[in-house]
Specification:
The complex is a heterodimer. Chain A is α/β, with parallel strands linked by helices. Chain A is built from 14 helices and 12 strands. In chain A, helix 5 packs across helix 6. The chains are: A alpha/beta, B mainly alpha. Bound molecules: adenosine-5'-triphosphate and magnesium ion.
Amino acid sequence: MIHFKNVSKAYGDHQVLKDIDVSINKGEITVILGPSGCGKSTLLKLINKTILPDEGDIYLNKQNIRDIQDTTLKRSIGYAIQGVGLFPHMSVKENISTVPKLLKWDKRTIDNRVQALMEMMELPETFSKKYPIHLSGGEAQRVGVARALAGNPEILLMDEPFGALDPITRGKLQRKLLNIQKKLHKTIVFVTHDVSEALLLADELILMKDQSILKKDHPYKIVTEAKALLKTFTGGSFAFELLEKFRISDIVDQLTGLQDFDGYCLHEDISLKEVVSEMILQGKSQLTVRNNHQYYRLDFYSLMDLAKRKHYE
Amino acid sequence: MSKRYLIREFILVLSLVVLLGFEKQIDRLMYDIMGFQRNPVQWTSLTDLMLNHMKLVLLSTLCALLITVSVVLLVHLMKLNALEELFGNLAGLGTTFPSVAVMALLVPIIGYGFVPVFLALSLYSFLPMYISMVSGLKAIDQSIIESAKGTGMSSFQLLYKIELPLAKRMIVSGIKTAVIINISSATIGSIVGSNTLGLPIVIGIRTTDMVMILKGALPVALLAFLAESILSRFEGVASWQKH
Ligand SMILES: Nc1ncnc2c1ncn2[C@@H]1O[C@H](COP(=O)(O)OP(=O)(O)OP(=O)(O)O)[C@@H](O)[C@H]1O
Ligand SMILES: [Mg+2]
C-alpha cells in the first residue's frame, strides 16, 4: 500500500531519516514506536507530502507520490497532526467539515457526517458551535481525530492523537479506533511513544531509533523475539502489555468449553491483561471465564500461547 | 460594544454637520459678535474642502490598498521571500522620509494640485498597510498552517479560509493607521495647491487668523476620530478569541 524506498531526509546538517525502506500494509494499523526526536513525525509527514524526501521515493499503491497532485493526495489522506492544529477561528463543526467541504460534498451529507463523527468521538452535540479556545486539550484532540476521519479517507495518519487524554478516555478511544477499524479496514499509520498503546493497536509494529527503523513485525513477534531491543524503549512489562491486546472473546475459539460449571467465574469480556491481574489478586493460576453462555478454563501458562496462535491465525 | 461606537460616531458626525452646515453663522458669531479679527480671503466653502479632503483620502487609501494587496499576495503566494524583505525594508525606509518632501519633489514633475498629493498619500498609506499585512500573515502559528495544508487546501484556499481571517486584525489595524495618516497628511497637501482642509489652516497661519486655523483643524481632527472609530469596529476581538 505505502512503500518507502531508500528514503532519506535531513534538515540542514541534521540527518533525521536515513535510508528508510519499509512497506505499510493495506487495511492494517501500523504503529510507529520510538523515542522523542527519532523522526516518527517526519516519517509520517513524508507520506502526504507535507515534506519531501531528499533522496528516495515513496509509493502509494505502486504510484510514486511525486506524480500525484499535492492537494489530491492530501485530501485523500486523513491527517491528525501532533498537537492538534485546529483552526482557531472555526467552530468545532466547521473544523470537522473542512475536508468534506474541499471535496464539495453537499450540505446534508456534511451535516450528517459531522454529527456521526462527533458521536463517535464522544463529543456532545452542543460542542458543534464551540471554538477551539473553549475546548480542553483532550476534547480538542478528539476534534482533530474527527477532522482527520471526516473525508472518509482510505489512509489515516495519526500523530500521537491520544497524547493529551486521561487514561480512561484514552483507553475508550483506543478501543473505539479498533472497533471502527474492524468495520472500515482503513490503512492507519499511528505514531506513539507509548508502548502499551503501540502493542494494543498495532497489527504491525515499527520500532524506530536514531534516524532509522530497527524492526518491523507483528507485536507478538517483537515482544518475544526483540526483547532486548524493546527493553531499551521502556521497562520490562511489555509481555503484560501485549496481553491487553486480546479479549476473552478473541481467544475462546481456541479453547474447549467446560461441560458444566458452578462456581466463581469472570463473566465480563475483559482483556487477558486483566485476567492476569485477577489471577495475581486471587493467587490462582487458573480461572474460569464465561463467554456466550459457555464456560472456559484459562490457564496462566497458556496465555502467551493463546496470544501467539491468535497472531498466526 | 457596537453601541459605544455608535454613540461616539453619532456625536462626531453631528459636530461635523454643525461645523459645516452653520459655517456662515459661526463666522458671524466669531468675527462680528465675539470680535475676532477677520482677514477677508476669498475661498471655497468648508463643505467643499472637506469633500475634497475625503475624496483624496479615500481614493489614495483605496489605490494603496489595491497595490498592497496585490503585492502582498504576489509575494506571499509565490513565496518570493527576498522580494518580501526588500519591500519591507523600503517600507521602513519610506516612513522616515517626510511626506511633505515627497509632495514638493513631485510638483516640478507633475505640477500643482490633486495628483502630487494623491500620489504622496498613496505611497504613505502603502507603507503601514504592507508592513501590517506581511507581519499579520507571518504571525500565524505554523502548526495551524501545517494542518491546513494537510487537509489539502490549495495555497489560495489556505489564504482566504485560514490566513486572511487569522491576520484580519493586524490588516485592519494597518488600514486604520494608513487612513489616519492620510487624513492628517492631506492637510499638508494644500501647500502644493490641493484644496483640502489644510487650506484654511495655511491661510489662517499666514494672516494670523485663529478662527480660520480652527475651521480647518477641527474638522480634520473630527474626521480622524470618526475614521478611527469606524475602523475599530472591524478590529475588535472576535468571539473565537475570547476566553
Ligand atoms: N522543520 C524542522 N527543521 C529542523 N529540524 C527539524 C524540523 N522538524 C523536525 N526537526 C528535527 O528532526 C528530528 C525528528 O523530528 P520528528 O518531529 O520527526 O521527531 P518525533 O520522532 O516525531 O519526536 P516526538 O516524539 O517528540 O514528536 C528532531 O531532532 C527535530 O528536532
Ligand atoms: Mg512527533
